[in-house]
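Lecture 7 notes: from sequence to structure.
We start with the chain below.
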Amino acid sequence: MKKIWRALGSIRLTIIVLLLLVCDLAGGYLSLKGSEKIFKPLNDFGLIEWVNTYGRTYPGHTVWFFVLFILLFLLAVNTFVCTTDRVLVLIETRKYFTRRLRFFLKFSVHIMHYALIAILIGYLVSYLYARTCSNMVIALKQDAMIPDTKIKVLLKSMNIDYYQGDRLNFLNDRACKISAELLLTAAGKQTSKTIGLNKPFRFDDLSFHLNDFAPRYKSGMQRQPYISLIIKKDPGMKLYFAGTLFFLAGLLMYLYQWFLLQSKKGGKMWEESIAADHY
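Predicted structure tokens for the same chain:
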């Protein structure tokens, strides 16, 4: 068991996996040209359903994607084993540290490694369990039920700004900004939310994004006002956001340690035994 653990955490495995990742991504880049439509439904269907449909139908264009998952799994395992070994050694040698702050800051790189693993797991959970309603159309003053939920959405109002200017005459009377007010009802409670271009919001573990709207033009044939929403439920979002925050915390700890070592005061403060300096 120890031999397997050491093999999984070896630097040789790290180098091999990284080289294979470069080769696989290069092959994926070449395979992706002209076949983007094969991977576009991945965000809507989820990984399992996509594998059983597009993945199996076009193996020549998707095999690199499956190899990518295997290599990322090996990289995550290798990172976890290697980092855990170093953390355990660091804890065992804590008696060599005369200052608690120095001991604490030595965990900075390891925190970033664990955070990277959390981010990868978060994206995997998203691909496995995320659900997407890619085109939910709601007319003004009308409501609709979100599929697979008990949430009702009512489009209360729309405020569209149309471009009026002399510099770009061809854009005159064309919509340039929109703000729509939605009333969401769930479990007898009502909540008002405002959505716009590049202005999504979250409600009850769902994220709402504005996909399209009408009317686009102030003049011409008038269409019934409506909006089109993309609604996502992504259980992995919290995990990779948390991983990102931990990675940032580890990075700040590392930078603080580096700047402290560069200062004259830090040079005196950080003089310790050689046994503590090899981490």
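Points to note: The mean pLDDT is 86. The radius of gyration is 26 Å.
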